[in-house]
Design a protein that fits this description.
Order of helices and strands: EHEHEHEHEHEHHHE
Shape: globular
Strand order of the largest sheet: 3-2-1-4-5-6-7
CATH architecture: 3-Layer(aba) Sandwich
Radius of gyration: 18 Å
Helix content: 40-55%
Strand content: 5-15%
Oligomer: single chain
Largest sheet: 7 strands, parallel
Number of domains: 1
Number of helices: 8
Length: 253
């Protein structure tokens, strides 16, 4: 059976790389994102390899999500893989200096958006034994660091939501994985830094960070395990990243 893969946030980073990886295998692709021009260009690139359906989508809009799923063309009406990739981080300031608007955008996208898409697609996924849901969480799901505050909390939601879905879907034939990447080089960080190229270079210079293609390969692997195997969670870092000592600071007087 040909896989039919629904990818959110397919216009850059992990989502775009995942589209290319599944296309190589001849999967049908449902590509969504907010930037139509990028979706259209990616579809044109991949159509020689596979069937592609695109839809402009802001995952924060529950009605729009439901409408896109309801209106899927017949050839794409039975997704077998959901890649919940759409997400973002905004800002690196400590919580007491962060913008409330940035917090709200992260919650609306990383939490509400993922819930909207999952809720709309679960009934269809349950009709396909061996179907897979891959939720993009983060090492920030598990490990705190300065400036992570709402971003890390939103990704912790993704990880816990994935585990709870597993409980509900036990015996239904649908796998759920929380994929938790560490330092990854993509447009994601430019968004977080408000386009500051210097900050981007300072973060990634000399690190040999994970690349979108690395994560796409893992997503493809997860979705192509034998149907009786569920990888509950998968945390991955580049070899240049690891844990460090607890931070001990002088307290303000």
């Amino acid at each position: 059976m040909t896989q039919c893969v629904f990818i959110t946030g397919a216009t850059s980073g992990f989502g775009e790389a995942s589209a290319r990886r599944f296309a190589k295998a001849g999967a049908k692709l449902i590509l969504t994102g907010r930037r139509f021009e990028r979706l259209a260009a990616l579809a044109d690139e991949l159509r020689p390899l596979c069937e592609v359906h695109i839809a402009t989508l802001d995952v924060r809009d529950a009605e729009a999500v439901a409408k896109i799923v309801e209106d899927l063309p017949e050839a794409f009406s039975q997704p077998t893989v959901l890649v919940n990739n759409a997400g973002l981080a905004k800002g690196t300031d400590p919580s007491y200096a962060a913008k409330l608007e940035d917090w709200q955008v992260m919650i609306d996208t990383n939490v509400t958006g993922l819930v909207n898409v999952t809720h709309a697609l679960l009934p269809r996924l349950m009709q396909s034994p061996g179907a897979s849901v891959v939720n993009l969480a983060s090492i920030a799901s598990n490990w705190p660091y300065p400036g992570s505050h709402v971003y890390g909390a939103s990704k912790a939601f993704v990880a816990q939501f994935s585990r709870n879905l597993r409980c509900d879907l036990a015996g239904k034939g649908v796998r759920v994985t929380s994929l938790e990447p560490g330092l990854s080089e993509s447009e994601f960080s430019l968004v977080r830094f408000d386009g500051d190229q210097d900050k981007y270079q300072q973060l990634y210079g000399g690190t040999n960070a994970l690349q979108p293609e690395d994560i796409a390969e893992l997503i493809f692997w997860l979705a192509n395990q034998p149907p009786h195997i569920n990888i509950n969670s998968l945390e991955v870092m580049p070899t240049s990243q690891a844990w460090n000592n607890f931070n001990v600071v002088k307290q303000d007087s």
